[in-house]
Design brief:
The strands form four sheets. A six-stranded mixed beta sheet has the order 6-7-8-3-9-10, sandwiched between helices. A five-stranded antiparallel beta sheet has the order 13-12-11-14-20. It is of the alpha+beta class. The protein has eight helices and 20 strands. β9 and β10 form a beta hairpin. Bound molecules: adenosine-5'-diphosphate and magnesium ion. The site of adenosine-5'-diphosphate has 11 residues, from β2 and α1.
Length: 342
């Protein structure tokens, strides 16, 4: 049975005139990894700090593990945080860093060190306990920071853009490691990023934020395939947004007619179509290929049609379609989503 680990109810956070978080509500289940995703300044870090208790809400309530913690300070919440800078103590060895929290909390020093060693071993860091943080790679320092947080057995583990200091080449590996750890320890984790690919890769669910509000909450698959707005369609992956009308159970734009399931809806509308859902038929017509770009694993075409330009992603075939060619544009019945209607 699932249990609610974190719940926000109508949470608002203002800094003077700025409303950083504008009445958001959501809940996160135990053992779930949820990502806050959105452009810079949309309120991700503030939301995370509200969970940690580093900020208190101006309105609304924050619940952790079934308790209202809205007015509790960070030290009165059992929350671990992994910062982008890792914030390891540079003059302490790895094991001293990891055992520091439990020791401060009053645990026996030897027991804390043993527990720390166990966790280091589980994270593939055994043998490195005596080193200084400066003697480790970025990815290893990241893991020490995670070890230091989970040794405290927090109710929730928070990550604020944890990969921004990790080498671009290593990012994919480190994010997989974080996800593995989260699964292995069945941690409830909240992860902040502005990188949509990272969010898709590590999350059970994603909270997409825009200007202090929640634009959509869903699994990576739901957000990618069923975005509920232009903003989400555009922010996650590449989207072709086509404007037209809904009428008589169809979506109609200049030179394009698609069946639309809900015949009750009428009026101006915009649909989103992913580049890989569009087929190009060299024997058809309706579009003109403007450019064909070879990207190693696929071709990308720009195709102009009566209703606008489309980005089309196609598998590599022996003969690409040449610029200037006429093509038919094929959008399957389940290949588009309504993102706006009047
Ligand atoms: P994100 O992490 O998504 O980039 P933040 O949560 O850091 O966004 O910030 C959201 C908004 O709140 C921004 O407009 C930011 O300038 C503002 N803000 C954040 N922290 C403070 C603060 N301590 N004082 C004043 N404004 C702040
Ligand atoms: Mg931030």
């Amino acid at each position: 049975m699932s249990e609610t680990a974190i719940e926000f109810v109508d949470v608002v956070k203002r800094y003077g005139m700025v409303t950083a978080v504008d009445r958001i509500s959501f809940s996160i289940q135990r053992g779930e990894m949820v990502t806050f995703l959105g452009p810079s300044g949309c309120g991700k870090t503030t939301s995370l700090r509200l969970i940690a208790g580093l900020e208190l809400p101006s309105e609304g309530s924050v619940r952790i593990a079934g308790q209202d913690v809205s007015t509790r300070a960070a030290s009165e919440r059992n929350v671990g945080m992994v910062f982008q800078s890792y914030a390891l103590f540079p003059h302490m060895s790895v094991i001293e860093n990891v055992a520091y929290g439990p020791t401060i909390r009053g645990d026996d020093k030897k027991a804390a060190a043993e527990r720390g060693q166990e966790i280091l071993a589980m994270l593939g860091l055994d043998g490195l306990g005596k080193r200084l943080p400066s003697e480790l790679s970025g990815g290893q320092q990241q893991r020490v920071a995670v070890a230091r947080a989970i040794v405290q057995q927090p109710d929730v583990l928070l990550f604020d853009e944890p990969l921004s200091n990790v080498d671009a080449k290593l990012r994919r590996r480190v994010r997989e490691e974080i996800r593995d750890l989260q699964r292995k320890f069945n941690l409830t984790a909240v992860y902040v990023t502005h990188d949509q690919e990272e969010a898709l890769a590590v999350s059970d669910r994603i909270v997409v934020m825009n200007q202090g509000r929640i634009a959509q909450i869903g699994t990576p698959d739901q957000l990618y395939n069923r975005p509920n707005s232009r903003f989400v369609a555009d922010f996650i992956g590449d989207a072709n947004l086509i404007s037209g009308r809904l009428e008589n159970g169809r979506f109609v734009a200049e030179g394009l007619t698609l069946p639309f399931a809900d015949p009750g809806q009428e009026g101006a509308a915009t649909i989103s179509v992913r580049p890989e859902r569009i087929g190009l038929d060299p024997a058809g017509h309706g579009g003109t290929v403007q450019s064909a770009t070879y990207l190693g694993s696929r071709y990308e075409y720009m195709v102009s049609a009566g209703y606008g330009s489309l980005l089309v992603s196609a598998p590599i075939t022996s003969t690409p379609i040449a610029p200037g060619a006429q093509v038919g544009i094929v959008i399957p019945e389940d290949g588009f989503t309504l993102v706006e209607s009047s």
